[in-house]
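Treating backbone geometry as a discrete language has practical consequences that deserve illustration. Part of our work consisted of pairing the sequence of a single chain with a tokenised description of its backbone. What the numbers capture is local backbone geometry rather than side-chain detail. For completeness, the protein is quoted in full, as a sequence line and a line of structure tokens:
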Amino acid sequence: MYLVQILLPVYDNDGRALARDLYDAVFRQLTERFGGVTAFTRAPAEGAWKEPGAGTSRDRVVIFEVMAERLERDWWAAYRRQLEADFRQEKIIIRAMGVEEL
């Protein structure tokens, strides 16, 4: 079993809030494909990273997560590219962790 998390930005690269319907679409797509989704949208996480020669960049993200029996890497790669286009981002992080249900 895998826990798959998608980190989605709250703001675009120009600092404008992204439209709510983008997140609603992700919620619907993941629910349809995986039978359920958890979205952490009320208290965005804060991230920071160093850009070579450009100082520190910051972002606020919301996290969507699903449980999946199998890790379909080709599907996730295509979905990541779709999200990058929809959210106008150079890179969207999708990460997967093996989990054991207790």
